[in-house]
Amino acid sequence: MRRLDPGVVMAMVLVLAAVGAAACSKDRALPGLPDDHATREREPALLPRDAGAGPSGPVPHEDESERHEELPNKVRLPPSVVRAAGIETAPAVLDSLPATVDLTGEIAADPDRSARIAARIPGHIIAVRVKEGDRVTAGQTVAILESPELARARATFTSAAARATSARLNADRIERLEAKSLASGQEASAAEAEAAALEAEGAAARQTLSALGQGEVESPGNGSARVTVRTPLAGFVLSRDAVPGQSVDAEHVIAVIGDLDRVYFLGRLFEKDLARVRVGAGSEVRLNAYPSEAFEGKIETIGRQIDPAARTVTARILVRNHGDLVKVGLFGTARVVVGPAETPALRVVVPLAAVTRVANQEVVFVLQPDGDFELHPVRLGRTAGGRVEILSGLRAGEAVVTAGVFSLKSAILKSTFGEGE
Predict the structure, then answer these.
(1) Assigned CATH for 6-97+343-419
(2) DSSP helix/strand/coil, 216
(3) pLDDT, tens only, 35-94
(4) Structural fold of domain 102-110+259-339
(5) CA distance 90 to 96
């Protein structure tokens, strides 16, 4: 589960606390909207319709698990709760969405936000502290290894450091004797050279230990040495190749860690569309696993080599994850904006973030003049550039909630659950 921001958690608590005292109207409830909503569905929504873009018709059959009896379609929240929940509104507008091109592809981890954690030293694994799919933090222990080679390296460093210390003390002593004319300059020079050589050996031994993870080493009393392997970044364990007792070499990759807050969608761009698609173009990615979720992104790079078999080139689209839904390897489609609408037909348009799903229906929340937030079931059209067409259920100019939608949805559902208790 995604860790929610403390501010969001507090806002949700305030919303749910306010629902008990909020006036939730049930004079028009889902499913089947009588009264003014039925009229709204039959009206042309202030713009011409395409053939077949008429009333949305009856609500499709719902599973028993998704049906909400007498679900209220209005909720009123105190102004303080509205502010705490970050609820914002914007008017629905008449507009035409730009032309788009669809690219099929899959999710891949950002190589700059990934780490292949190798053993760095031959040995055998004592313990593994992570499982595939775990969320980890930077510096967290991945595995513990025991390595006789590391023990030898530590012994070499200890010996070199001790000899260097002794040689330095001797060089300092002879230098003092030379100052009193009790030793020759040649003896002082020889002692200084020996001390410098042994200090260089000690520095090399320390550098070898550092390359082997010397700062993370424990020395047990039996003469062996253990090294703790840690992850340098936070993220998820994408793969793991380690079990206790397994012998590994220095290049063996114990685990692969990836930060999936930001990933790439690798879209296949056909050469016939190359002239239309540009770096920086906005896109909307929908994954096959989550068809109702949209992930906004932009094209970061377009490849320079055509696949000779498929006649496609890879377009890398930077996508920001939400809800920890994105997983490496998921297939989907990216809808990329390529220019103005080819046949500009005005329709009611709202931000994609304004649409949510309640009782198996796509809905938006509309702020009423009296301060109520009213639920409007809508029928959706095309999406592009983070916006969506509303074919029915909403008029141009109505104040649609564009931020804080989840808090209002929680308030509507919470009021229903509370009545069943």
Answers:
(1) 2.40.420.20
(2) helix
(3) 444 334 434 343 333 333 333 344 444 444 444 455 678 888 888 888 888 999 999 999
(4) Elongation Factor Tu (Ef-tu); domain 3 (2.40.30)
(5) 17
**Vertex 392 angle, CA 389 and 397, to 5°:** 70
The amino acid at 27: D
Q: Which residue has the tokens 């995604």?
A: 2
Nearest to 136 by CA among 240, 241, 257, 3: 257
Q: What is the pTM assigned to this prediction? A: 0.61
Q: Copy the structure tokens of residue 267.
A: 């879209």
- Top-confidence residue, 285 or 160: 285
Question: Distance (Å, rounded) from C-alpha 16 to C-alpha 20?
Answer: 7
Q: What is the residue-wise DSSP string for 58-116?
A: SPPP--GGG--TTEESEE---HHHHHHTT-EEEE-EEE-PPEEEEEEEEEEE-GGGEEE
| Residues in a beta bridge with 270 | 312
pLDDT tens figures, 206-221: 877 777 665 544 444 4
Sole residue written with tokens 């970044």 = 233
Omega before residue 55 within 30° of 0, cis: no
Write the CA distances from 366 to 134, 192, 395, integer angstroms.
40, 85, 10
Indicate the domain borders of the chain: 6-97+343-419, 102-110+259-339
